[in-house]
TrEMBL record:
Species name: Paenibacillus radicis (ex Xue et al. 2023)
Entry-linked InterPro entries: DUF1540 (IPR011437)
Listed name of the protein: DUF1540 domain-containing protein
Pfam family, one: DUF1540
Ranges of residues in domain DUF1540: 4-63
Amino acid sequence: MPDVKCSVANCEYWSKGNNCSATSIAIDVDQHANADFGSEFAEDFNGHKDAASSAGNTCCHTFKLKK
């Protein structure tokens, strides 16, 4: 797993040093920002392909609100 940095401190997977502690990461393009992939998102991404014109056109579906 690569070193993934994240500054969203209210995410369940946020850890010290602005690191993401999720076991897998799901990133999609903004047009799918409201898609509900649920906590088992990996299977929903099979065969799913899009193209982003810049980093600003992407979003993280791994986010889970910290309780």
